Amino acid sequence: MDSLNVTARAKGLMFGAAAAPPTMLDPQYAALYQQHCGIVTTDVALKFGRVRPTSMAPNWTDADALLSWAEANGIKVKGHALIWNEYNPAWLWTESATGPDFGALTAPVTVQQAGWYFDKHIVETVGRYAGRIPIWDVVNEPIELAHGRADGMRSKTWMHVFGNKYVNRAFVRAHEADPAAKLFLNEANLERFAYEDHRVAFLALIDRLLDQGCPIHGVGLESHLIMWARATHEGIMWLLGELSERGLEVHISELDVHHAGNTAPALPTGTAAATIDAAVAAFVRPFLDDVLSFPCVTALMTWQLADKYSWLAGTAPRPLPFDSAYQAKPLAFEIEQALRNAPPRAAAP
Question: Is the link from the previous residue into 265 a cis peptide, with omega within 30 of 0?
């Protein structure tokens, strides 16, 4: 098949995927990225817990290696993710559970010290790569209605330090460190059926940030699609219409498909590979048609590129465009056709 990024660029779009330094040591996998990707997301290499495994000197080894590889191959890099309520170092937070009460600081770290580390991490990380990483996911997954807050936000970690102002603070610090960088807010579940309240809470957060003069330039729709949860045409069209009206750029930032389950239209574990691949491609088709119909959507990125390295490999083993032997699957051809069908943008970002 043709390069997905070349196909995307013909319509003023970018195609890419998350990438991690260990996987780039696989020459066949690296070659797949070189063929198909115009942009890579840093996956875990720049997350707080990876960069700062101790409170002492940061560890830039993985990020530097990935960036050097990408630059050598003419591939743009998107930094992910500066601030998240997950994946934080054990020396700072006591646990990494997902419940609403997670947020106890590890002794003897104080709230004031945690705030200092928050600022330090953003400023040092963005500043180190200023001029080299042009796009950042500044805050990841701020919304979780199950935590019971009136504003719909997660009641974890950084909420305990700054309250809901932590999101704006993160963007301001990132902008100060590199005024030329595009800054994104990345969120999960925005495409899911019956998640209207989630979409409303997310858009309300966007409006609060804009009202505060926050230097936000775009939004990432993670799009970890789940077949049994389904995707909503109406919800996607509404949200993207609202984001477009606000002048925000949108990335489909972490696309893959969880196809396994006991609830239709998901497929039982053990379903034949050809059946899975056909069902995944058919499931994704209307979603891609919807999101790529909006000119504000400027990039389509999958979470890793081939099944072998997917985080879903153990539960839904065929979630990505290329299989574990790096061969294109029906999903790859579906993406290619959706990119060809997309209305042209002015130019690739």
Answer: yes
Model pLDDT, residue 26: 95
How far CA 331 is from CA of 31, 260, 280, 335, 338, in Å, comes to 19, 16, 7, 6, 10
Q: Catalytic: which of 191, 249, 254, 336?
A: 254
Q: Is residue 70 part of a domain?
A: yes
**Could you tell me if residue 347 is inside a domain?**
no
Could you give the residue ranges of the DSSP H alpha helices within the chain?
4-9, 21-24, 27-36, 48-51, 61-72, 111-128, 158-162, 166-177, 196-211, 233-245, 273-292, 330-341
Q: How far is CA 246 from CA 135, 185, 318, in A?
A: 19, 14, 36
The parent domain of residue 264 ranges over 4-341
**CATH number reported for the structural domain that contains residue 148 in this entry:** 3.20.20.80
Strand partners, 192: 231
Hey, how many other C-beta atoms are within 10 angstroms of the C-beta on 347? Answer: 10
Residue 24 maps to a domain: yes
* pTM of the complete model: 0.96
H or E element, residue 184: strand 182-187
User: Which tens digit of pLDDT belongs to each residue from 284-315?
Assistant: 999 999 999 999 999 999 999 999 999 999 99
Distance CA 76, CA 135 (A): 9
Please count the structural domains in the chain: 1
**CB-neighbour burial class of residue 274 (10 A; exposed 0-12, middle 13-18, buried 19+):** exposed
Would residue 254 show up in a list of annotated catalytic residues for this protein? yes
Residues 83-122: pLDDT tens digits?
A: 998 889 999 998 766 666 667 899 999 999 999 999 999 9
Q: Assess if residue 348 is contained within a domain.
A: no
